[in-house]
Structure formats: structure tokens, C-alpha cells
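WP5 quarterly update. Target: DUF4131 domain-containing protein. Source organism: Parvularcula mediterranea. Length: 704 aa.
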Amino acid sequence: MALSWNERLRNSARLGAGELFAKPRRVGLARVLEIAQDWAEMEARRFILLAPCLMAAGILLWLGTDEPPGLFLLLPLLGVTLASWAISVRQMRDGPMLGFRMMSMVLGGMALIALRTELVEAPLVPAGMEAVTVTGHVAKVEQREGDTRYTVRVESLSGLERSELPRKVRIVWRGEGDARAGDRVSIRAELRPPPGPAVPGGYDFSRQMRYQGIGGSGFSYAPPAVLERGGSGFGDAVQDLREKVADRIEGVIGGPEGAIAAALATGKRERIPEFAVSALRDAGLAHLLAISGLHMGLVCGFLFWGLRTALVRSERLTLNFPVKKWAAAGALLGGLFYLAMSGGGWSAQRAYIMAAVVFGAILFDRRGISLRNVAVAAIIIMVIRPEAVAAPGFQMSFAAVITLIAAFSFIEERWPREGERTRLTKAMGFTGGLFLTSLLAGLATGPFAAFHFGRIASYGLLGNMLAMPIVTLAVMPALVLAMFLMPLGLDALVLLLVGQGLGMVLRIAQWTAGLPGAAGLVPQLAPAGIVLASAGLLTLALLRAPWRLAGAAFLALALPLSFSAPPPDVYISRDLRNVGVVTGDPARPLAILSKRRDRFTVEAWLQAIGSRVEVKSLDAPCRARDVACSVGGLSEGQVIILSGREGLAAACDGAALVILRSRALPGDAEGCSAELVALDSTGRFPATTLRWAGGKVIRRSAKL
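C-alpha cells (predicted):
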């Protein structure tokens, strides 16, 4: 029987691998090149899987560059590369063709993020502004535990010209207000520019906010004054509907279970109490709180299954019409409604795009779940929102999906076919599938959780094994049913069942989180480690030739490389608001300038060194308003912190580090024998770490 093209390639790859590894001394260079060419030919037909990886690499390279190239440079480079690709295709030169194709994907990713940055570019709130009056329309209202957060589209802002206005600002009021989405309001607030990373290499909140069009954040002195009621637009109507649905669900169920159910239905996570968030996070169940591929898949999958089951009840419809495609179309429409109800966040958009690709494949008689469809979904997301590549949610969700599809495709080829399965193999398939799904998803996302959040849920597999069947088989289907029954007023009983299910999930989370060592803290990891881990995962999952085994080596090297970066000796917050000196004492690992000022940053420092100590138990030998103070603990000498220039010369003579919490003058650094840190000419300073090595000071700073 004739072999297919793919089978011939696999056989040649196996023979090539046997020659290379079994008899290395008898293989000449010509044969090695021939085998490599065969392997490359095997991968060439799967380039669609590598294209989004190369585009993502280009986006991350652009974001990680201090002075990234602009479109005026990238577009000509991309054009030349595409032309060279076309020429190599005409000349049938395989090597250059592959190289230019890969370069085109990388440059394409860089061009996408450069274009997106140009499109969202808008003024930021200047630093050091006094209290201002903001007038505009409310775009979003978030009722959180203890406060309310408003996102306002700015019409005017006192002290700024029209050309200097940011598009949106985010303002927190520590109380309740009656302003709704769409209302025109006036707010008296204190604003500042979007904050940068709390530590160098940490998550960049300013980048996230700027791509959302938010040019400043702060707090208000009073609730917003409503100047004019709005809510006539479609977006405002959707926001109002979300609030009403969340209120209804929370009112019927009550307690933290009601808040979690409201978050699952509308994406409003801000209502969930902190203790519930902490328990779910430490149990490895935090993914339940973000509208993502899991939720969208369950909603669309339940709708698809329900519609198809109802339609096949009719023999006439089944025999004469494509009921499977009708069910897929209904699932897509239901998913679109769920996307709108969830607030349309980018993680929900990503999830819907992936669901649309899967169910769209059914509409066009293609295989629904495959790595090619995942690649298409990733490309679509990167074209629309290229900045999403840098977000933990994007990386973790795609890592999990790619790993699961690759692993289950491998198992499917070796598992008994439908007619050959016994009751035992079916039971083993369900239980083993649940176990493998939790295990593989945890292994795939664990490195990213450790890198971005500095913690690992040690019993995440256990928590997911116990809780996910309840969520998958009971909570989400019942919640979808309740949403359909809500307009008829018949949802109360179903919502109570949802609350019972979520109560069980929350009790499982609290029990799991209470086990010894449930939340493992990880110090800040070196970026090279996560890059190598990502390369290893993608190599194993996406490639088919034997060189995919190199991915295992990459993963093995990623762990020691992640911990290769030596920890800093001193942490300095943005604008010198706080300072932390690493003491080496596990009970009090940091000596800080202030326990009250910039607590979020201090918590980020503790997370970066992998400490569980609370801020209130740290040593604070200085006070932020002191004219001068001295902090010990640094082996190289004293750290002296000055509020002004008085005593600068004496401090420079007797300390290893001098922190001047005011602007430095020309010549100050050269005239100081100690390491001098001071505000720049604009009164700004980025989050920075200092480390002494071999008599030199290694300074690492984040972007402002």
C-alpha cells in the first residue's frame, strides 16, 4: 500500500535520527545535511504554527528595547524582506526562502506593535500636579470592596490645554456614588501619570494603561457630581445591563459565592472579597476569576451541545439540514453576547477569537480543535491587540492550550478507537483526561506564574481535580441556564444551585490553601529562564522532526538559568518615595524608609526576594519627613538618605550610598565618593535596584 507524503517524511526522519544517534561515526557531513534538509522539509508544511511565535518574538523585542525602531524604519525593512522572500520562492532556494519568511514574521510583529503604539499615543497627566477638576463622561464603574473606581473619558481638566488632555483617567473614590456609565460628571481629584513597574523587570502597569488609553490615575476628594444623565449609547446600555445582572445574581445568592457568580457572568471581579481571592489563588484556582478560554469554552460548548441535542430530536431537521452547523452558529452568537456581558476585556476578546476559530472551522467542515486553529487565533489577536503578548494571561492561556492539544493529539493516536473502547477504557479516559488536563495545564503555566507573580500553587493539581468537575459539569451550565431564565424572572432557583456549587468550590479552595506550603513564594527570576522555558515548550509541542527533543534540554536548562541572577542589595521606588535595604535577616528582610508610604511597592520588593513577612513587621529606622537618616545592613557601608542638599558633602564622605530625595545639580555625582542617587531634572526617578559586585555598583532601572 502506498504511503502518504507525511508518512514518508516521518519514516525518513526516523531513519535519519537512527543514523545520527545510533551510528554517529559512520555518518558524513553530506548525510547530516541531507537528514537536516528532510527534517526541515517536514517542518516547512507546519510553518503556520511557527509564524505566531516569530511574530510574538518581534513584539516582545520591540517592547523590551529602550529606544524601539519606528514605522519609518520597520516598514521599508519589512518590504525588502518580503520582496527577498518572493524572489527566493521564484528561484526555489529553500534555505533563503525559510530565512526571509522567518524574518518577515519577526519584522511583521515589530511593525504591528509600532503601529498600535502610534494609534494609541496620547498625552499623559503631568507629574507633580496639584488637585484638579476633571469633567467628562463615565466609561466604566467598578464597585470594589471599600471603594469605587471610575474610568472617565476626559472633556476638560483644569490646568491643561485641550491638546494636553489625556483620553481617559482612572479615579478611585473611597465610598459609594450614584454615577453610572454614560453619565457626564465632574470630579475633584489628585492625579498622577500611570505608574511604571514597582521593580525593574516587573509588570509594567503604565504600559497596560497607556494601551487602554488611560493617561493618568489617582483618587478623588468627593463622589462624582453628576452633571447630566447619560446611558443612551449601546456601550452605556451594555454597562448598565452588566450592573443590573451582577446585582441580581449577587442579591439572590449572597455572600462571596454571589460575588464569584457575578464575576463569572459579567466579569466584575472587583466585588469578590479579598479572602476569597486569596484562597482561590493559593489553591491554583485563580483562573476561574478571569473571563478566559475556560469560561468561553464552557459557555459556547454548553450552547453547542444543548442546541445540537435539541435539533437532532427532529428527524426531519437532522436529515435535511446541517444542524451541527446551526448549533455552531448559535454557540458563536451566544459567545458574542457573553463577550459583551463580560465587559469585552482583552482576555475575553482573546477567548472569543479562539472560540470563533474553533466553531468557525465546524461551519466550514474543518477540524475544530487543532494547533493550526490555535495559531490562527494567536495571529488574529496579535493583529488586533499586539500588546497582549506581554500580558501574563496571553502567555499562560496559550501555553496551556498548546500543551493540552499537543499532548492529547499524541495520546489520541495511541488510544483505542471508539468501537474498540470498553467501559473500563472509557472510565479511564474520563478520569485520566481530567487528571492530565490539570497536570499538564499546571506544568505549562507554572513557569509563567512564577515569573510574573512570584508564587506557585503547590497543590494546584489537587485543587483543580476537586473543583473543576463542579465548575464544568454544574456551575457554568446552570449559570448559562439562569441567564436565559433571568428575563422571565425564573432564575432564582437555578442561581441558588449555582451558589451551592460555588460554595463547594470555595470550601475546597480554602481547605487546599490551608495545607502546609500551599503557596510557594519564588524570588524574582531571570528573564532568560522564562525565554528558554518558552522555547522548550514550543519546540516540544509544535515541531515534528526528531530535533524537537532539544526542547527537553531547553526546559532542563531553564530552571538553573532562572535563578542565575544575583539578588540586589538596595531597592528604590519610583520618584524616591521609599527605600529598602536588604538586611539578610529572614525575620526582617528589609530596612525601609517608611511603612506607610508606597506600601504596594514594598510588597513588590518582598515578593521579589521571596519573603512572606508583612510590611508592618519591617524595620523602619527612618521617617520619610526626616532631614537626614542612616540605614545599616549594607555590608559595603552606611546608606544615608537626605531630604535636601544640606549635609550632602559630609554624607558623600562617610557612606557607601547617598540617596538625595531632591534634584541633583551638575557635578554632584562626580564630586561624591559614594554612590549618589537623586531625582532627575524633571523631578522623576524610575524604580531601581542596586547591587555591589567587585567594588562596582550595578544599577538596574525600569522605564519611567
